[in-house]
Amino acid sequence: MKILFICKHNRFRSKVAEAIMDKILIDRSIEDVEVRSAGVVQYYTNLFMPRSVVEALVRKGYKIRDEKSKSVDSFLIEWADKIIIVADNVSKDLFPKSKAIVWPVSDTDESDISGIDERIDDIHERINLFVEDNF
């Protein structure tokens, strides 16, 4: 299965989902699953994950593959078997209905450490349920 996590800028929520899914797949020895992440809008003034998000993920034991944001394109949409929108500000209508699901996770300011931790925990819980239901 090929899973694509999407959020608005690919600087927080989808990057968090990618890191968590990578760890869960390794921890549970689940093979034949590929994971990527992307954003629908490039945030050109800052193309990298906020330091506070990176530090929160590292503190919780996750590894980040790449801190640079990526934009979704037709190749990624075609590549994915499942598109998981990890955001409450991205329309599901941008993606094939047969592939897309929405986890309405709100954004938070990069200086809000407790807000970042809450969202990481929320995404972790959603991914655990997804993995239990699909693998």
Can you put this structure into words, describing what you see?
The protein has helices at 13-27, 51-59, 74-79, 113-134, and strands spanning 2-7, 34-39, 82-85, 100-102. It has one domain: Rossmann fold (3-Layer(aba) Sandwich), CATH 3.40.50. The mean pLDDT is 96. Helix 1 (13-27) packs across helix 4 and helix 2 crosses helix 4 (113-134). It has a four-stranded parallel sheet. The protein is of the alpha/beta class and 135 residues long.
SSE pattern, N- to C-terminal: EHEHHEEH
Whole-number count of domains: 1
Which sheet architecture does the biggest sheet show? 4 strands, parallel
Task: State the name of the first-level CATH class.
Answer: Alpha Beta
- Morphology call: globular
What gap, in angstroms, lies between the N and C termini?
Answer: 10 Å
Helix/sheet category: alpha/beta
Radius of gyration: 14 Å
CATH topology: Rossmann fold
Q: What is the CATH superfamily label?
A: Response regulator
Read across the widest sheet, the strand sequence of neighbours is 2-1-3-4
Number of helices: 4
How much helicity do the residues have?
25-40%
Indicate the low-confidence ranges by residue numbers: none
